[in-house]
Amino acid sequence: MNTEKTYKVNKIFYSIQGEGARVGTPQVFVRFSGCNLHCPFCDTDHASSYKEMTAHEIVQECRRIGNRCASVSLCGGEPTLQLDSWLIAEFKRYGWFISIETNGLLPVPDGVDYIVCSPKTAKIAPDNIDELRYVVKAGDPMPVPHKFARHYFLSPCFDGEQPNKDNIAHCLTLVTEHPSWRLGMQWHKFIGIE
After folding, report:
1. Is 54 inside a domain boundary?
2. Number of folded domains that form the chain
3. In terms of residue numbers, what domain contains 48?
4. Which residues are catalytic?
5. Model confidence pLDDT, tens digit, residues 29-74
6. CB 74 within 8 A of CB 99
7. 115-120: long-range contacts (C-beta < 8 A, 24 or more apart)?
8. Contact 137, 111 (CB under 8 A)
């Protein structure tokens, strides 16, 4: 009987980072199934289907599709619900750079190289945050982060896959009024890639 731990993986794919400070960087994405929030504007169908995979199977699939890329983004859903030292160690065994995209409600395990936090509540559990990305709609107040980050982004909420001009205009106004922040567009949607 196989007792090796499995992870619920919605999808593994190879593309480029579409937003944030690392935009344009080739990387493999591991999208986990399941989330501890149910945001009405979520643009990812992460819960309807998944495949159970071991840490070894996940890393081998990333290596197979990654075209010599050794950078992975763990996303979801909410990856901190499943990410653990076993999966991190398996990626590190092959020399991978590990980034995570989290809603910030749970701590991030040691060994992750780059932390992107997109908080949906006031609580932010991780430390050593590289990017804070706030999803903003027209009329929303300027976020007040309770943690330090190396980069701060305001990301206009999209209408599904379509940009919302009012949300973009509002973010532009906020960024020009707060120049330590940057506009964080989802460029992958504009150029039609995942």
Report:
1. yes
2. 1
3. 7-190
4. 29, 35, 39, 42-44, 101, 188
5. 999 998 866 666 555 565 668 999 999 999 999 999 998 999 999 9
6. yes
7. 116/20, 117/147, 117/149, 118/155, 119/143, 119/145, 120/37, 120/39
8. no
